[in-house]
């Protein structure tokens, strides 16, 4: 029998396959599961288990700031428009969100 906690998680957890690698993206705020207002600015943590990742990445997600759109004059493949695959995966849930890596060099 499946535990109720596995069917209804207490914290937000996403199993990801980004660029062919499996990883975990999770939050520590249970309000993300039930209160859409908490989706304004929030924190997520990312762990891939890969050798190049020495610690869990702490990401700050802002769903109302769109500073990445300011460089529209550049083409979609220019260096100013390229984003890590993880950021693009996050934007499948929160379209247009900005992702701050908080001092960690973006990977993926």
UniProtKB/TrEMBL annotation:
<comment type="similarity">
    <text>Belongs to the MINDY deubiquitinase family. FAM188 subfamily.</text>
</comment>
<protein>
    <recommendedName>
        <fullName>Ubiquitin carboxyl-terminal hydrolase MINDY</fullName>
        <ecNumber>3.4.19.12</ecNumber>
    </recommendedName>
</protein>
<comment type="function">
    <text>Hydrolase that can remove 'Lys-48'-linked conjugated ubiquitin from proteins.</text>
</comment>
<dbReference type="Pfam" id="PF13898">
    <property type="entry name" value="MINDY-3_4_CD"/>
</dbReference>
<dbReference type="GO" id="GO:0004843">
    <property type="term" value="F:cysteine-type deubiquitinase activity"/>
</dbReference>
<keyword id="KW-0833">Ubl conjugation pathway</keyword>
<dbReference type="GO" id="GO:0006508">
    <property type="term" value="P:proteolysis"/>
</dbReference>
<keyword id="KW-0378">Hydrolase</keyword>
<keyword id="KW-0645">Protease</keyword>
<keyword id="KW-0788">Thiol protease</keyword>
<feature type="domain" description="Deubiquitinating enzyme MINDY-3/4 conserved">
    <location>
        <begin position="2"/>
        <end position="103"/>
    </location>
</feature>
<dbReference type="GO" id="GO:0071108">
    <property type="term" value="P:protein K48-linked deubiquitination"/>
</dbReference>
<dbReference type="InterPro" id="IPR025257">
    <property type="entry name" value="MINDY-3/4_CD"/>
</dbReference>
<dbReference type="GO" id="GO:1990380">
    <property type="term" value="F:K48-linked deubiquitinase activity"/>
</dbReference>
<dbReference type="InterPro" id="IPR039785">
    <property type="entry name" value="MINY3/4"/>
</dbReference>
